[in-house]
Design brief:
By secondary structure, this protein is an alpha/beta fold. The chain has helices at 18-29, 41-51, 63-77, 103-131, 153-173, 192-211, 221-232, and strands spanning 9-13, 33-38, 54-57, 82-85, 134-139, 178-185, 243-246. Strand 2, helix 2 (41-51) and strand 3 (54-57) form a beta-alpha-beta unit.
Length: 251
């Protein structure tokens, strides 16, 4: 199956590193025009300059900034066909007892992993509905389907909320020709947080983790990007409201 996204315009958030980067590059390779966004303005600018992407340095949890980024993409390219919400993550947090979790610690992970997805989908739904076509792909997590390996309660709860939001957006936007799906990655060493987590497991824990995966290897950012490209394609036009686990069989 050949995926051809020629003529499509995509916006990828969380594109300054890891999975977001791989998705942006994959979409470009498939022919799409790609805009990238991230809260890390410096990292984003370097990546965008290297690959000639338009860059939007925003905090996706800021509704005005999220709407502004979508408006800028539509103004520049006349349309927005694909929205990939890869921004999120643990924002530097680590697992700890629930008694030690502050209100700010709890809320910031919902802002990063849920609020931003909603604001961007809200903004993108207008131009997509006008065109009668759209693909929204959210990057969830295995932590959105079961307890998290990170042990971070807010991250697990936020990713579960993202799974629910994905299904609701599918129902709400489907009549306008917009599909909404999510990819739930297994453990992928794709950014500083996952590298710290990997090292914290130690040799024995690393061995146990790999042995719990059916194909006996960790995933890569490109593994996740391949799934996103399929869900963004015309071949996936009758797939919506689904959560695709890409985890080597661990689920």
């Amino acid at each position: 199956m050949h995926i051809d996204l020629t003529g499509r315009v995509a916006l990828v958030t969380g594109a300054a590193q890891g999975i977001g980067k791989a998705i942006a590059l994959g979409l470009r390779a498939a022919g799409a025009t790609v805009a990238v966004a991230d809260v890390d303005g410096e990292g984003l600018a370097a990546f965008a300059a290297e690959h000639d992407f338009s860059a939007h340095a925003i905090d996706v949890s800021d509704r005005a900034a999220a709407h502004g980024a979508v408006a800028d993409v539509v103004a520049s390219h006349g349309r927005l066909d694909i929205l990939v919400n890869a921004a999120g993550g643990v924002r530097g947090q680590i697992g700890r007892p629930i008694a030690e979790v502050s209100e700010d610690d709890w809320r910031v992970l919902f802002q990063a992993n849920v609020d931003g997805v909603f604001w961007l989908a809200q903004a993108a739904s207008g131009p997509m509905a006008k065109a009668g076509h759209g693909r929204i792909v959210n990057i969830a997590s295995g932590a959105g389907l079961r307890p998290s390996l990170t042990g971070i309660q807010a991250y697990t709860a936020a990713k579960h909320a993202l799974v629910g939001l994905t299904k609701q957006l599918s129902q709400d936007l489907g009549p306008s020709g917009i599909t909404c799906n999510a990819v739930a990655p297994g453990f992928v060493r794709s950014n500083p947080a996952t590298e710290r987590q990997w090292k914290a497991y130690g040799p024995d824990g690393q061995k146990r983790l790999v042995e719990s995966i059916h194909v006996r290897r960790l995933g890569t950012a490109e593994d996740i990007a391949h799934a996103v490209l399929f869900l963004a394609s015309d071949q996936a036009s009758w797939i919506s409201g689904q959560i695709l686990s890409v985890d080597g069989g661990r689920s």
